[in-house]
Amino acid sequence: MSMKLKALLKSAWVFHLSTGSCNNCDIEILDCLTPRFDIERFGMLLVGSIKHADVLLITGSGNRKSMERAKRLYEQIPKPCLVVAVGECALSRGMFIHSYNCPVPIDKVIPVDVYIPGCPPKPEAIIAGVVKLIEKVKKGTEKKSSV
């Protein structure tokens, strides 16, 4: 397994992309960064550039214009990378499922590694998703290194 995925176990840098959310998920993500929940203890750090990120964190239901931009951003992120979908809208388009402007879920446009459900998901659920993401990477590195 590449050194980059091993580094994700200790310090995953995250780029947050909102594809048309109501901002409730965004507020919960910011709550994870406060000292009360302190997601940085897992090495998660928000970055301002997709070129520096290891993880793409997506919120929102994704309309036609934002899906094009999400795909373009996914192509720009250094590989290997991980994608996390946060909130019911990112998972299944939520209340916008029958909207003409939200034709497909995010995982039909770019591959998603971890889904964190909820409307909005609580910080505890986001932290549990992060832990599952770290475990997934750890299992992947163990399988590759043992082969």
Structural key phrases:
single chain; 147 residues; alpha/beta; Rossmann fold; five-stranded parallel beta sheet; 5 helices; globular
Task: Give a short synopsis of this structure.
The protein has 147 residues and is an alpha/beta fold. Helix content is 39%, strand content 14%. The protein contains five helices and five strands; from the N terminus they run H-E-H-E-E-H-E-H-E-H.
Polypeptide structure, described:
This protein has 5 helices and 5 strands, in the order H-E-H-E-E-H-E-H-E-H. The chain is α/β, with parallel strands linked by helices and 147 residues long. The chain has a single domain (3-142), classed as Rossmann fold. A 5-stranded parallel β-sheet has the order 2-1-3-4-5. Strand 3, helix 3 and strand 4 form a beta-alpha-beta unit. Helix 2 packs across helix 5. The longest helix is centred in the C-terminal third of the chain and has 24 residues, at 123-146. The mean pLDDT is 85.
